[in-house]
Amino acid sequence: MAVRMKNRFLGWCTDPYRVLSTVLLVILVVLIVVPLWEMIKESLQFSSSDARKAGVEAGSWTVEYWKELFASRISRKMLYEPLVHSLIIALSVSAISMTIGSVAAWLMVRSDLPFKRFFSLAIIVPYMLPAWCKAMAWVAVFKNPRIGGTTGFLSYLGVYVPDWLAYGPVAIILVLSVHNYAYTYLLVSAALKSINTELEEMGEIAGAGRGSILRRITFPLVLPSMLGAFVLTFSQAMGTFSVPAFLGLKTGYYTISTMLQSSLMQGNNGMAMAISLVLIVIASVNILVNQRLIGSRKSFVTISGKGGRSGTGVPLGKWKLPITLAMFFFIGAAVILPLGILALQSFMLKLGEFGIHNLTLHYWIGEGEKYIANGLPGVLRNPDFIRTVKNTLALVLVTSIAAAFCGQLIGYVNSRGRGRLSGKTIDQLVFIPYLIPAIAFGAMYLSMFSTPKTFDIGRWTVEYFPSLYGTFALLVLVSVVKNLPFSSRSGTANMMQIGPELEEAAGVSGAGFVTRMRRIILPLSKGGFLSGFLLIFINVMKELDLIIILVTPQLKTLPYMAYSYLTGGTEQYSNVVALIMFVVVFFVYWLAGKLSGDEVSLNLG
Amino acid sequence: MEMKQIELKNVNKYYGRNHVLRGINLEVEQGEFMTFLGPSGCGKTTTLRVIAGLERCQEGTVVIHGETVADSETLYFVPPGKRGLNLVFQSYALWPHMTVYENVAFVLQVQKWEKSGIETQVRKALAMMQIEEYRDRYPSELSGGQQQRVAIARAIVSNPRVLLLDEPLSNLDAKLRLEMRSELKRLHRELGTTMIYVTHDQVEALTLSTRIAVFSEGEIVQTDTPVEIYMNPANVGVARFIGNPKINLIPAVARPDGTRVRVSGVLGDFVLPWGAFLPGEEITGEQKCLIGLRPEHIAAGSPGEGPEYSVLTSMLAGSETLIEAQREGERILLKQLGFGNLRAGEPVYPVFSPDHINIFREDNGKLIKRALA
């Protein structure tokens, strides 16, 4: 009996799958479940200052923050109004992006649209440009004199820009839609590519017309991925901070995420955590509803045959010219215009004056002049900028490599652990950061790591987590964990393609787990690793919402630098930084495409 | 006179610079079971898709049931749904979001049938394929064989004049393949529909078809009945492709010998009458050639009856034994009924009747002497 127990234990310890999944499980619980719990706790405990006011001990349990948020004089301003704003924005953005993204995907994958090579690159550029850069471009065009300060391009030309267009919900919705359609585009075009064209040809043979085939065959087949895109867009838009901050705060238009940030800034942490939890609950409900919707349908895995035989695609006929023109117009408005404006502004000595005499290289390479921005030198001459670039690159590289590697490991456990409880649990856990809007996620980590976490065993106090606030490690950690849903998806997809028998064959030849990983699995997953790496790289490079409440001046990143220039009123510096950032992202994307010999797909699904 | 159901005239198709169909000419009679046979990439599926209307040919015409459905001269192409045909894909292409019933009913709905009419017609088709009990299942809940039946039911429900089948059995396991093969034969008998069947499996082609069109590199090299194709392949390529075990192709030289023709080589000397050769291919001088001889037409004779070969392997295949033997570096395969008792290294003396042999020219591979049945 004892031998039996001992052998069972030994067998357990030497099964690499078990060990790996256990280790992963523990790490994920610590990095995801514990912070979530800390957050809940913080919303239910008096902070030290509030405790003093209330005359109780710090850390006593209370529902005061929740009561204040939901049922008090300030609830309307603090919660309900911003919530309605956020919901309007999120729903509109999702609807618009889903329409634009799906139509674009169909045109690119299935139709005979000309200039596909150009469009396929241009159409994902908005995804490489952070949303707040587009907000800056928007302001540059539409800013009107009402707000004060310099005016935008249209006002300069003497065109009257009404307030509702310059700032507020319309501006926010349009800017976010132009940013977020890329998710739908990528997901739906991947789905369209995976659908065997024979399914549509069969409709043709049955005598169904183009419209009928689209409606009855193609559309139902891509519907699951459209709903998936909806979930993604909705939670992104719901939690997005920077765009509503740029385009809403000046006119007092709050969303739930800007409200969250301002509560934090005022040191009202309990309240901020409660708001974050509301955000998380909304995102979860949204996902649950959608899973119901998708789950009630079959998930459509089709035998992928040869497909795509008829190379030219569905002829657009007389619509070809108008559609092509519309595409060019869209690309112009969504891609070229924002970039052009950013570039133009970076050369303008004084904003709002559009003339040749006003052009300068000062903000790029000028030496400090005391009349301009208190003597701040051009970005490329600023030692602070060089430090920030180094810091950003370090963060991005470390994060992307770590996240892509973790993604492969999780993918390995997921693909080998299909149907096992541990595999399923890990799959679910990894999904949680996806639910939590970026700004709430940052808040969660702030709550977790601002003070050392301890627990008491008798007389000893054990510190199980140090305070990481203000360290590089915290930024890496938060970025890696927030991006796990993406990297593990790409890792799982990658590992699924590596049949277990390849590994078993090595096992039979006597290779141990580490050797199998090193010699078989990792070399085979190189391509997947690269595309996972790339995705995270681009995500982290432009990330602002996630780290905005965690970053300290010594550790700032390029987006944060651009953001602080902007809020400091020196937009031109901000534009320069944003452009440099875009160039880096674009270059990495291009390089990865070259290296892998193929256009790397930014696989989100 | 029988009606021509399908006529292809000088059909050419290019993908960019790639010339994939090179002047296809073909006539299919009503009620025929015509098979397109050939290795992958030879243009047989493309031809099928041109007939279906899924591809447009750049040259040539397609006529179905007396009506021109594709004319590349005038750029006139009738859409697939209006050609009165239906298709079974290799992948089945069952719509995964529809139940079996919905899949089968789709074509009738598109053709605007009445509801009650659809119900009876679908039930008939499901009954024909013996899958009534699965009518409310989704394709993903069916086995491969059942999916195959649904795909066929969907293709026959609208009573098409022509049924096209693109390698329909290649995704099935061996046992199911046999079952579906006889199922298809039954279907052809009961429906009387003209069928065009694409396959790379010569056994399927030989067992199912009334006629076979053999494809090679975008051309039809031979169109004939299965027996003819087996007995008298039009060239060395077809000879090599058809038959399992493979045909023996043995080099020899033919030269005129008085009023007859003498053929000599490893297999020994034999003479053939002058008229044994096809018109226009008479032997006037020395001609290098290949002798095509099916293994079942060679017997093991007693010493002296044939040239002496040495046995390499003797392979029992159940009811018969395959013997591989060698002489002067040339190998030969012969098939003996029952259990052979020859061992490796022992001598064997192959005998055959000159009536059974094919002779091909060595230079262009063309058949110049037919086998007599």
* Helical stretch tally of chain B: 8
Gap from first CA to last CA of chain B: 28 Å
Number of strands of chain A: 2
CATH architecture of the domain at 16-52 and 383-549 in chain A: Orthogonal Bundle
Supply the CATH architecture of the largest domain in chain B: 3-Layer(aba) Sandwich
State the helix count of chain A.
27
CATH topology (level 3) name of the largest domain in chain B: Rossmann fold
Order of neighbouring strands in the sheet with most strands of chain A: 1-2
Radius of gyration of chain B (Å): 25 Å
What ranges of chain B have pLDDT less than 50 throughout 5 or more consecutive residues? Answer: none
Q: Helices and strands of chain A: which structural class?
A: mainly alpha
What is the percentage of strand-forming residues of chain A?
A: under 5%
Please explain how this structure is put together:
The complex is a heterodimer of chains A (605) and B (373). The radius of gyration of chain A is 26 Å and the shape is globular. Chain A has a domain at 16-52 and 383-549: MetI-like (MetI-like fold, Orthogonal Bundle). In chain A, a hairpin with a 2-residue loop joins strand 1 (453-457) and strand 2 (460-465). Chain A is built from 27 helices and 2 strands. A two-stranded antiparallel ribbon of chain A has the order 1-2. Chain A is mostly helical and 605 residues long. Chain B has 2 domains: 4-240, P-loop containing nucleotide triphosphate hydrolases (Rossmann fold); 242-369, no CATH class. The two termini of chain B are 28 Å apart. Chain B has helices spanning 44-52, 100-110, 115-128, 144-156, 174-191, 202-208, 226-231, 236-241, and strands spanning 4-15, 18-29, 33-37, 59-64, 67-71, 76-77, 85-88, 162-166, 194-199, 211-216, 219-224, 248-257, 260-265, 268-273, 287-293, 299-301, 309-316, 320-327, 330-337, 347-351, 358-361, 367-369. In chain B, a hairpin with a 2-residue loop joins strand 13 (260-265) and strand 14. In chain B, helix 2 (100-110) crosses helix 3 and helix 3 (115-128) packs across helix 4 (144-156). The mean pLDDT of chain B is 91. A 6-stranded mixed beta sheet of chain B has the order 7-8-9-3-10-11, sandwiched between helices. In chain B, strands 14-13-12-15-21-22 form a 6-stranded antiparallel beta sheet. Chain B contains 8 helices and 22 strands. Chain B has 373 residues and is an alpha+beta fold.
